[in-house]
Write the structure tokens for this entry.
Amino acid sequence: MEIHPECVPCLLKRCLFEARAVDEDKEREVVEEVLTMLDELFEEGAVSAEVATEVHKRVYDILGTSDPYLKMKEKSNENAEYLLKKSEDMLKNGSFRDFVLLSIVGNVLDFGYRDDIISADYLLEEFDNLMDEGLGYDDTDEIENLLEKAENVIFFTDNAGEIVFDTLLLKKIKGYDVHLTVVVKGEPILTDATIEDALKYDIDKIADELKTTGGYAVGVDFDKLSQEVKTKLEDADLIIAKGMANWESFSETDHSPIAFLTRTKCEPVSKTMGAPYDKNVAKLFK
Amino acid sequence: MEIHPECVPCLLKRCLFEARAVDEDKEREVVEEVLTMLDELFEEGAVSAEVATEVHKRVYDILGTSDPYLKMKEKSNENAEYLLKKSEDMLKNGSFRDFVLLSIVGNVLDFGYRDDIISADYLLEEFDNLMDEGLGYDDTDEIENLLEKAENVIFFTDNAGEIVFDTLLLKKIKGYDVHLTVVVKGEPILTDATIEDALKYDIDKIADELKTTGGYAVGVDFDKLSQEVKTKLEDADLIIAKGMANWESFSETDHSPIAFLTRTKCEPVSKTMGAPYDKNVAKLFK
């Protein structure tokens, strides 16, 4: 996805959120530096995820941390575990669509850029409403059709906490008798799940293979993917990508067929994806 | 008030809001230009209102308009007129505090920088809640004491729509047998009321004198005030200043005694003012 004008205040807000989480005294330095960077990087044709990667990397350096969101991610996992207990009963005989919905609802665990989503507790407060909303864009039948015929499926995760809900969807996917590869982030980035989160929730046991994106990036930096993951991506009969940053990255490529499962939390993503804003979206691109 | 790190995304968001209101095709140019300006202007010691004045001036030029908020301001006036009818009964025997509260509640008619306040309809939806909230910081007794002894009072208005509610407060103030000067903006800036709004609501008849700030500025540019208004400001036994931008400007001066009547819609203002965030605030500085 090309960087949009709205991405600029959003990115600044998020960097400020990171500074506040780690060291309030560095807020001013962070904003000064990000302004200088964006003055150079914000231009037609620039890819939002690539700009965001560069900017956040610099902010992490200024703040002297490799993971400003660590505590928040722990809290996301904790809240998701609590809700999972509730959901396991609810989803005992759940359909593929039910597990897709749950996994998308978990995608709200992504904070620091909207005034209303600033902590993992948002999910506790809004969980029932988000589930009741259902899917605002629903390609699950078509996605399920592809799954039924698929041999190789590759699944790119997004946030901590969300990954707890993903475990149920991953188990459901395995029920279609596919070879399942799950890819988590190679380094801590924003609120995203890392290999530690994946191992904590036994994704290495649920999936056939557990891989990483190979480095620091918002979404996926395709240059950093290992040859093995690149091959799996080429060979996949279905790619499933969670969250907005994966849209921002994959929409610049022609990998297909690919199902995006996300909460559309910002307008540039919802518009470019052709899906309604602020909804639970399961959209397939063949 | 010194410019805060939070002011940067906020300003960008507001400029983007202006571009969207006038010409969406210029969003990108606006953001590029504002980034370049802020990269230079955002520095320790810079005054938020002065930076905002410079930035908005440039955006208005790019957009080729002298008033991107014109239609929104008309809607603000319209909604306030509707609510005033409701309030006149309610406030038939209202106290000074009641009229101060109403006038502060009108201060929410200021949009484009917060996700939840984007149109004049926000006031219609939230009016009863905002009135029920009452004052979150209440110096009205002390302000009334000063009024009782005052000869000369000068009152700086803020937004269109809000000015409709101000008329009731201005009438109440005139009841204390003071010489009352009302100052509105000299040129259209953001959602602020201009001389046209003041005349529409007979403020020239309610007050003893109606003046303007003398030019284009967020809040007050003291260099642009006429000598007459400067003298009135010096001689005033009480200054009343509505809204956050007036805080941002007057807090850089030693004019006193001054009562700020505002909704504290952002944290830098509430923090520097020493008042709670997102409340109806009447705070006196002697």
